[in-house]
Amino acid sequence: MADDVIYPYQNPYLIGHDEEVKLFLSAYNSGALHHGWLITGDEGIGKATLAYKIARFLLSVKDGEKYNSLDVDVNGTVFAQVAQKSHPDFKVLERDFTDTDKKKLIKAINQGEEVDEEMKQSLKRSAVIKVEDVRDVVEFLSKKSFNDSWRVVIVDSADDLNVSSANALLKILEEPPLKSILLLISHNPGKLLPTIRSRCAKLALKPLAESEVASLLRRYKPSLPETEVTGLAKIAAGSIGRAIKYAENDALEMYEDIKKICYAGAKCDGTLLLDLANQVSADEDCWDLFVELVCRFARDNLPDAAHPREFYEAYEQVLKVFDETVRVNMDKKMAALQVLTLFGGAC
Q: Which residues have CB under 8 Å from 279's CB, separation 6+?
């Protein structure tokens, strides 16, 4: 049986970011809570999970009380409302559905069909967060809050803002309404407007430890054999999101095949080499996974390479091959064979 998917807004469990949690709680307890927080770090390490945890906390607190945890009752009303994105003082700013798929969603709702999360995830979204979406946030923040509580906006992610929507959001950060807070999630904060970065307090999340990734895999993917748990945690580079994606795409098997072929060099199994080249050139998703895992292999093995200079030069050539597959539409099967041969001669 497949393991259930747990999305950040449904997930009460956070591991590995104790210092950032303490920093936020300290700001809250001291009465010096900033109106904008920029939550940064690699994809899949818990940024959105932390943002939703903060949102539920602020929508549950009682004025004048001090807290040592962000946890709230998972069976309570606030948790359920945030999970359903229906709390009157909570809003998520994200890329909207495309017009075509928005019509599909509205039609399904009008016809009484069950609109579950799996269906929503299958719908296409716009390429960017539009300025009209930010204006909805302005309108939301202009209204009186429920029971004089906090109003919370999660921007997931700020990387998706275009110039117009980024400037519209900046105006909110420059003149924030009372008792409102914006939580901006960013995988690449260097690309954000400097003025947005300067208007926010920072929570810079670090990659998780291998043991933490393994612990989360056991929780989210309990059907995985322990050998896969430890193997996936080792190649996930501190990201539970990446580890889950790898588990769902048999990435560990592909990574092991890459290792076998590269370390065998000229003595590698020709059948295994051709099978892997055929596999990774079958579609874009397989190719993207191959590129990611080859780069992971290089970073994992460069420090211990018997001939580090030759290995590094091979890696530079590999990156050029990957670039050419995009620029000049190089045949992916031939590119895969070339990449594996380059590393096979350097390991």
A: 254, 286
Q: What gap in Å lies between CA 227 and CA 51, rounded to an integer?
A: 32
Mean pLDDT of 235-240: 96
Work out the pLDDT band at 118, boundaries 50, 70, 90.
Answer: low
Report helix, strand or coil for 5.
coil
Residue type, 337: L
Residue 109's contacts (CB-CB under 8 Å, 6 or more residues apart) are 115
- In terms of C-beta distances under 8 Å and separation of at least 24 residues, what long-range contacts does 145-148 make, across chains too? 145/88, 145/89, 145/179, 146/88, 146/89, 148/179
Q: Residue 197 belongs to what H/E stretch?
A: helix 194-198
In contact, 20 and 28? CB cutoff 8 Å: no
C-alpha 342/C-alpha 262 separation (Å) is 8
Q: Which of 83, 103, 102, 94 is nearest to 128 (CA)?
A: 94
The token duo for 137 is 């946030």
Q: What is the pLDDT of residues 73-84, one digit of tens each?
A: 999 999 999 999
Q: What is the DSSP string of 253-283?
A: HHHHHHHHHHHHGGGS-HHHHHHHHHHHTSS
Nearest to 91 by CA among 33, 133, 49: 133
Q: Which of 190, 178, 153 is nearest to 37 (CA)?
A: 153
The conformation of residue 128, written as its DSSP 8-state character, comes to: S
DSSP characters over 268-328: S-HHHHHHHHHHHTSSHHHHHHHHHHHHHHHHHHGGG-SSHHHHHHHHHHHHHHHHHHHHS
Q: What is the pTM of this model?
A: 0.89
Contact present, 82 and 152 (Cβ < 8 Å): no
**Residue 263: alpha-carbon gap to chain centroid:** 32
Query: What is the strand order of the sheet 36-40 is part of?
Result: 90-93, 151-156, 180-186, 36-40, 201-204
User: Which residues are within 8 A (CB) of 40 and not within 5 positions of it... i.e. 6 or more apart?
Assistant: 47, 186, 187, 189, 202, 203, 204, 205
Find the mean pLDDT for residues 283-287. Answer: 95
